[in-house]
Amino acid sequence: MHIKDLVGQITTLTVSRQADFGYFLTNGEEDVLLHNNEAKEEYRIGEAVEVFLYIDSQNRVAASSFLPSVTLGDYNWATVTEVKNTFGVFLHIGIQKEILLGAEDLPALKTVWPKKGDLLYITLRVNKNYRIYAKLASDEIMKEKAIKADKKVLNKNINGHIYRTSKVGSWIITAEGYKGFIHQSERKREPRLGEKVSGRIIDVKEDGSINVSLLPRKQETIDDNANNILSYLKDRNGAMPYWDKSLPEDIAARFQMSKAAFKRALGKLMKEGKVYQENGWTYENKEH
């Protein structure tokens, strides 16, 4: 096997000689350079060294004793370190060289491209010129990685990272290892590829995968809407010309909520004694 055929992989080579700029390692037939910058420590002639092989800027096979968290055919999470609109995103895999995930492997919609700090589940691929690139895990790979969810986790809060995204929905791997789908109706916006999101399990399927909603629970929505109404009242010194019989379009324009949602939130505030209604107006109960 030629040494080039091991590019993108971890292998063990032997130190054959030392130079001012690094070490030459051999497999018995070919030598590769382990530059001083890529050497974790000092080595002796004849010592066996575990290294990762890559192609350097001068198109030569080179070695690094800094070992990556992901190699050719093996998968792991990698952190996005930089986004280049033309080229794609660069990922940190534990070595000094950052790895490119090309634009052709990213969503067509750039608003859902990963941002710095997002996590992607990847492996490495080597092109015909032996250049190393990142490759996203397929849905089949995620299915193999996933843990089957039990029915008892229904309605449980979860968080995880988006590994695939489209207009119809987003696919997630949770911190527990569940594979899930977020339908477009269960999100306010389309999450980025690699973005960490929080939601809840709304269905557990027979195959152990889950359906997830990123929308708040009904009570959480009511609480948020009630707080918004109360905040608006306080800004107006405790009085506003809106009540439960106001026109839906007026409520939507002022509070960005439906009339039904407005009435539920207003009803909560009235039940708690925080507001009262009179002659088409709503007032803050300042004695409460």
UniProtKB/TrEMBL annotation:
SUPFAM superfamilies: Winged helix' DNA-binding domain. Residues 155-215 form the S1 motif domain. Pfam families: CvfB_1st, CvfB_2nd, S1_2, WHD_CvfB. It comes from the Bacteria. GO terms for molecular function: nucleic acid binding. Belongs to the CvfB family. This is S1 motif domain-containing protein.
